[in-house]
C-alpha cells in the first residue's frame, strides 16, 4: 500500500513539504510517491489543494 497521485496534480509541492519521511517528490511538474518509503500517514492528502493524492 502507498498513496498515489492522480491527474489532478498541479505540481505545487505541498505534499512534498508535508511528508514526514520524504516519500513524495515533484518530478517534471507532477508528484511521485515512492511506494517503498510511504508509510500511508495521510499527511500529503491533507496538504494537497486539489485532492490529487489519496490512499490506494
Ligand atoms: S501518505 Fe504520508 S508517508 Fe505517504 S507520501 Fe503521503 S505524507 Fe508521505
Ligand atoms: S500537493 Fe497535490 S497538487 Fe501539489 S504536488 Fe502534491 S499531489 Fe500535486
UniProtKB/TrEMBL annotation:
Molecular function via GO: 4 iron, 4 sulfur cluster binding; metal ion binding
One Pfam family cited in the UniProt record for this chain: Fer4_7
PROSITE patterns: 4FE4S_FER_1, 4FE4S_FER_2
Tree of life domain: Bacteria
Record has DNA-binding as a keyword: no
Domain 4Fe-4S ferredoxin-type: 1-28, 29-56
Protein name: Ferredoxin
Organism: Faecalibacterium gallinarum
Phylogenetic placement of the source organism: Bacteria, Bacillati, Bacillota, Clostridia, Eubacteriales
Amino acid at each position: 500500500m502507498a498513496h498515489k497521485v492522480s491527474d489532478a496534480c498541479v505540481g505545487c509541492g505541498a505534499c512534498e513539504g508535508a511528508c514526514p519521511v520524504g516519500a513524495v517528490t515533484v518530478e517534471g511538474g507532477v508528484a511521485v510517491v515512492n511506494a517503498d518509503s510511504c508509510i500511508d500517514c495521510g499527511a500529503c492528502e491533507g496538504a494537497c489543494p486539489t485532492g490529487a493524492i489519496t490512499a490506494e
